[in-house]
Specification:
TVG1210382 protein; transmembrane helix; transmembrane; membrane; DUF1634; 5 helices; mainly alpha; elongated; 132 residues
Length: 132
């Protein structure tokens, strides 16, 4: 391994580590803000716990979450924090595919791509099937 390849690998490892670190920090910050807003408003518990709760992940749409952020909707912050938390390991897998592709390691690109497909199926497809 040349010095340039070793530096590129270290850079990719650093990027992956930072993505994981900042993803978790951002997610925790959003959750804390959402919980604080929920405690401040003293409302929203019925929305969270009710039978018609919008927390059904198969029907939540990203524009609906983002539209609640400017109005300081506690539920929007909490759900966005959870989305960021779930997206963080998915981003790690995507960065892993990029890293293996840069190393020209086809086997691990293939294996990691299967892992990514499984994650995306579990996140997007399975909830829709379960609620049919």
């Amino acid at each position: 391994m040349s010095e340039a390849e070793a530096k590129a690998e270290l850079d990719m490892d650093y990027l992956i580590g930072m993505a994981l670190r900042y993803g978790v920090i951002l997610s925790v910050a959003l959750l804390i803000i959402g919980i604080a807003l929920l405690a401040r408003d003293g409302a929203g518990a019925g929305e969270v716990l009710g039978a018609g709760s919008p927390l059904n992940t198969s029907v939540i749409q990203v524009p609906a979450i983002l539209s609640g952020i400017p109005s300081l909707n506690p539920l929007s912050f909490i759900v966005l924090g959870l989305v960021v938390l779930i997206a963080t390991p998915v981003l790690r897998v995507v960065l892993g595919i990029i890293s293996f592709a840069r190393e020209r390691d086809r086997l691990y690109v293939f294996i990691t791509s299967i892992v990514l497909m499984n994650l995306l199926l579990a996140i997007f497809l399975i909830p829709m099937i379960v609620h049919l």
